[in-house]
């Protein structure tokens, strides 16, 4: 994939849409392109949060560990941005991200990502929107799960 193609991939993600073409070229150039096979992990829950990823092609699952094994809590497709939570919160990875199909990504280092947010406040606002949306969805799913548990307990 040519540098211009990687810039185009970044531009399609709302997080990067308002960033200048020159800055996107630099980001694409300094990012690492990585291919994963189906079933291969980008990172595991509990790993240090040292980078984020833009999915170029393919799909990936977000899994969390439970006493009964791993469960899928989200799925990501082309143009999705994953791994930012650990960077922003400075915590270990909150989930495992596993390729559900052959996957191509751009790996953006923690330093690059934080610098980008410092230089482009609009990007930081978009990250907050994405995280708020994820939190809203997670809260709704948790509420539904609690209702189901209460229904089962009352039987």
Identify the CATH architecture: Sandwich
Report the total helices. Answer: 5
Alpha-beta content class: alpha+beta
Average of per-residue pLDDT values: 90
The CATH class label is Mainly Beta
Report the CATH topology name: Jelly Rolls
- Biggest beta sheet attributes: 4 strands, antiparallel
Radius of gyration: 17 Å
Q: β content, as a range?
A: 25-35%
* Total individual domains: 1
Note the run of SSEs as H and E: HHEEEEEEHEEHH
Low-confidence stretches: none
Name of the CATH homologous superfamily? Jelly Rolls
Record field, number of beta strands: 8
Can you walk through the features of this model?
This protein is an alpha+beta fold and 155 residues long. It contains 5 helices and 8 strands. α1 (3-11) packs across α2 and α4 crosses α5 (121-154).
């Amino acid at each position: 994939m040519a540098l211009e193609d990687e810039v185009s991939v970044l531009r399609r993600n709302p997080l990067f849409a308002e960033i200048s073409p020159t800055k996107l070229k630099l980001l694409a150039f300094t990012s690492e392109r990585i291919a994963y096979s189906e079933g291969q992990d980008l990172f595991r829950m509990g790993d240090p949060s040292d980078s984020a990823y833009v999915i170029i092609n393919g799909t990936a699952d977000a899994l969390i560990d439970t006493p009964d094994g791993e469960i899928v809590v989200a799925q990501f497709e082309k143009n999705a941005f994953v791994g930012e939570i650990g960077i922003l919160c400075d915590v270990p990875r909150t989930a495992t991200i596993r390729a559900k199909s052959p996957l191509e990504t751009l790996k953006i280092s923690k330093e690059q990502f934080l610098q980008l947010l410092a230089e482009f406040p609009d990007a930081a606002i978009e990250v907050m929107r994405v995280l708020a949306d994820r939190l809203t969805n997670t809260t709704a799913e948790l509420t539904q799960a609690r209702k189901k548990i209460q229904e089962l307990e009352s039987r």
